Amino acid sequence: MKRTTVAILGLLLLVALGGCNTIQGAGEDIERGGEAVQDAAS
Predict the structure, then answer these.
(1) Model-level pTM?
(2) How many Cα neighbours within 13 Å face the side chain of 10?
(3) How far is CA 9 from CA 6, 12, 16, 24, 28, in A?
(4) CB atoms within 10 A of CB 18
(5) Could you tell me the CA-to-CA distances from 36 to 22, 27, 28 in Å, in that order?
């Protein structure tokens, strides 16, 4: 029982960390897109 709980918590941690990286990457892509629009407008 204890081993299963530890395994589940470990998987949840990995999923959470993966989600953070994905959101960070998307934010960087959006930022680059905004910079491109600003450069084109000026």
Answers:
(1) 0.50
(2) 6
(3) 5, 5, 11, 23, 29
(4) 10
(5) 21, 14, 12
1-35 pLDDT, tens digit each: 799 999 999 888 888 777 777 777 788 888 888 89
Token digits of residue 18: 């993966």
For 1, the token pair is 């029982």
The C-alpha R_g of the chain, in whole angstroms, comes to 19
Instruction: Say which residue the tokens 């395994």 belong to.
Output: 7
Q: How far apart are CA 30 and CA 37, in angstroms?
A: 11
**Which amino acid belongs to residue 23?**
I
